[in-house]
Amino acid sequence: MLENIYKMSRIFADKVKALRHDLSASSMALVGFAAVPVVAFVGVSGDSAIGYLVKSRLTEAVDAAGLAAARQVDVADQTADLQMFFDANFPEGYLGATIDGPYLTPSADGFELEITANAQVPTSFMRVLGIDTMTVSARTVIARARSGMELVLVMDNTGSMCCDGVSDSKIETMKAAAHSLIDIMFGSNETIENFWVGLVPYTAMVNVGDATLNRHLWLTNYTPSEFDPANWLGCVEARSYPRDMTDDPYTVQAWHPALYDNHFDNYWGDRDEVVIAHLRRELGYSAGNTLPSGVATLEDLIEEYLVAELNPQSGDDYYDDDEQLWTHVARLVLGMDADHTIWNWDDNEIADLEDYLDPHDYGGSLPSDLDERSSLLMEAWFRRAYEAEEAEASVDNDADWRSGTIRDAYAEGNDGTGPNLGCGPAITPLTDTRSTIEAAIDNMHAWHRGGTTSNLGLVWGWRVLSPRWQGLWGDASLPNPYFDPDQPTDDTNQPIDKVVIILTDGNNEVYDHNSDGPDSSDYTAYGRLGEGNVLENGTGTALTDRSLARDEIDRRMSQLCSDMKAQDITIITITFRQDNADTQALFSACASPMDPDDPSGERLYYDSPTNEDLAADFDEIASELSRLRISE
Length: 632
Fold this sequence. Notes:
This protein has about 625 residues and is α/β, with parallel strands linked by helices. It has three domains: about 1-145, no CATH class; about 150-260 and about 420-625, 3-Layer(aba) Sandwich (Rossmann fold); about 270-405, no CATH class. It is built from 16 helices and 14 strands. The chain has helices spanning about 1-20, 25-70, 75-90, 170-185, 270-285, 300-310, 320-335, 345-355, 370-385, 390, 395-405, 435-440, 455-465, 545-565, 580-590, 610-625; strands at about 100-105, 110-120, 135-145, 150-155, 195-200, 205, 235, 430, 450, 495-505, 510, 570-575, 605-610, 630. Strands 8-5-4-10-12-13 form a six-stranded mixed beta sheet, with helices on both faces. A hairpin with a 5-residue loop joins strand 1 (about 100-105) and strand 2 (about 110-120). Helix 2 (about 25-70) crosses helix 3 (about 75-90), helix 4 (about 170-185) packs parallel to helix 16 and helix 7 runs parallel beside helix 9. The protein is elongated and about 125 Å long.
């Protein structure tokens, strides 16, 4: 239709020109004099209609191109998308128009993009008046929303995200993507009114903050001396079901502090405690460092172990004095064969034993006290039996093990020790300050041991957002109340969106680094797996099988997702370089629908199989959260 109007206008204009040659001079003067106003009127009307059509199409193209460009962060990408979407919506040569643009100009704070374009349109009738072209323009301003959101990033900080400082590692890629999201959301601003961001790093437990933040007030059964010579860093155990998956504050039920006991898979305490931990494992006693009933001293425990497990002859009274007990332990430590009995030690063999112990900081000679000798030698025996070969070859590691050195920094990896082993960085509560959240992102690292419990990361994300926690994180006004659309909007009822983004690279699981850990696992927020703290459906049979325990944790996470979405919390889920179909399905089902009016439609779930995919997905999420709109 538009092309027909354009063609008819050109034909009519050509006919008027031809008329000048067909009429006599006198007639032509009269006709020309009469035709000029008529042609001018018709020309202006016809050409104006063409100009209006071009302007309408130009405006549509500029709007579409601006929205597409605003979704990109990089200037080059913005420019490319601007041109691509403009060309798709304004075909080349449309109604004969020649385009100047489109041009993109960002505002100083980065929250607005101005897009302009001009079109030169050839005239038909108006050429009679000497006007060969007319210019039409289009302009649009794409704005980002600046207010009304509490956003919490729940980020996997487990050991599988390793390694820190490696540019293309999972942890560094995740941190870069999170920074990009913050760049988009804040623009060039340090703060934005009514916009807050929090961060929940998680491993097999979550760090809520230490005693300097008065988080010890959230605890029960907290004894600071149990962590000596370290301090409690802030990690907590999960509460019993169902409160492990609710937003109940500590005023409803407190938490137990997470204390990774001194044990044979975590050497950090007193020398005797380490030996006791080993002996308890061998003798089948429950976890802990208290001596079992009926055993008065460490020596008694050692003797019980030797008599029950290592006695080379029959009869419980074989070790009839301390010297015989010590001599046999020494034979075990040095690895001598059975021909070396307790009766035939000589000075050279004693010297060999002293040489063996000397590199491990014992002063070059055995203690004179036989009880001390027994403890010392038994420790050496267990170290020999259970420490890795590379640790045996390292004097530093051996000395650290004996002196109870605590090494709980992320850089220690699986070789870490201490009561806070596997306890990552603390939660950063909601803040409106960009530099605060960026510093927290930089402080994320890959923490080893324990496993992965995304359900606990997610529930702490809820607690950071829940109005039931208002004032408990330090700011008396945060988190904001849930918005009630059925009530008038006022100071106590503001339309504040609550959003959680959760990312993982693994499955929910309990890890066993040594493959023979006490109670079948490392320590986690649920304790050790064999302790039976994970119950089927929350109240049934204790699940000590790793696969069954994972199924239960997945079930709890699924229920948690439903409970959070029932509070109108938007959940965005991401699986990163992860190909487990069950976990992908869990995270997909957990995500909120992209269209709230279509709960069975596409979900806010992103599977990012590569580093590049993760970066692109975070940018897309940030653009969606920014709620792009045409403001002018």
